[in-house]
C-alpha cells in the first residue's frame, strides 16, 4: 500500500521543524505502533526527519513560496519531495565541496541528504524546483 501526504510549509524559519513533525506524524499514521517499537523503522523515521529538515531549510532559503512538502510511503521506501517556486528561472542544487576542517556554517545540507538517502535529485522547470530523496526501509 502506498500512502501520500502533502502539506504547504510555513514560509519562515519554522519550516524545518514543522516538516520534521509532519513526516514523523505521517510515518506514525502509516505504520501505527511499528514506528515506535521497531528499531529499524524508528531509525528510518529519524533519517527521514533529518532529510526533511535539510530539504525544507533549503527551500525556504533558496526558493520562493509556496513551498510544498510531499511524503510518499510504501513498504520498501520513503520518498520526500520539497517543491518551491523559482525566483528567477531555477538551477538544480549541487553538493558543496568543503574542506574537512572548515568552520563555515551552512552548505553541508545536501551532503547530509546524499549520505542518508538511497538516492536523491532535483527536477527543475521554468516555474518550480523539486528536490527529492528516497530512503530505503530495509
Automatic annotation (TrEMBL):
<dbReference type="GO" id="GO:0004674">
    <property type="term" value="F:protein serine/threonine kinase activity"/>
</dbReference>
<dbReference type="InterPro" id="IPR050267">
    <property type="entry name" value="Anti-sigma-factor_SerPK"/>
</dbReference>
<keyword id="KW-0808">Transferase</keyword>
<feature type="domain" description="Histidine kinase/HSP90-like ATPase">
    <location>
        <begin position="10"/>
        <end position="133"/>
    </location>
</feature>
<keyword id="KW-0418">Kinase</keyword>
<dbReference type="Pfam" id="PF13581">
    <property type="entry name" value="HATPase_c_2"/>
</dbReference>
<dbReference type="InterPro" id="IPR003594">
    <property type="entry name" value="HATPase_dom"/>
</dbReference>
<protein>
    <submittedName>
        <fullName>Unannotated protein</fullName>
    </submittedName>
</protein>
<keyword id="KW-0723">Serine/threonine-protein kinase</keyword>
<dbReference type="InterPro" id="IPR036890">
    <property type="entry name" value="HATPase_C_sf"/>
</dbReference>
Amino acid at each position: 500500500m502506498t500512502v501520500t501526504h502533502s502539506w504547504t510549509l510555513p514560509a519562515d524559519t519554522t519550516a524545518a521543524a514543522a516538516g520534521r513533525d509532519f513526516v514523523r506524524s505521517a510515518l506514525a499514521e502509516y505504520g501505527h505502533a511499528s514506528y515506535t517499537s521497531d528499531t529499524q523503522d524508528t531509525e528510518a523515521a529519524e533519517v527521514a526527519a533529518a532529510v526533511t529538515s535539510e530539504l525544507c531549510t533549503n527551500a525556504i532559503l533558496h526558493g520562493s513560496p509556496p513551498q510544498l512538502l510531499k511524503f510518499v510511503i510504501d513498504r520498501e521506501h520513503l520518498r520526500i519531495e520539497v517543491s518551491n517556486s523559482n525566483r528567477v528561472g531555477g538551477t538544480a542544487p549541487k553538493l558543496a565541496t568543503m574542506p574537512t576542517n572548515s568552520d563555515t556554517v551552512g552548505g553541508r545540507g545536501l551532503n547530509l541528504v546524499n549520505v542518508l538517502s538511497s538516492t536523491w535529485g532535483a527536477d527543475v522547470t521554468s516555474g518550480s524546483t523539486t528536490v527529492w530523496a528516497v530512503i530505503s526501509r530495509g
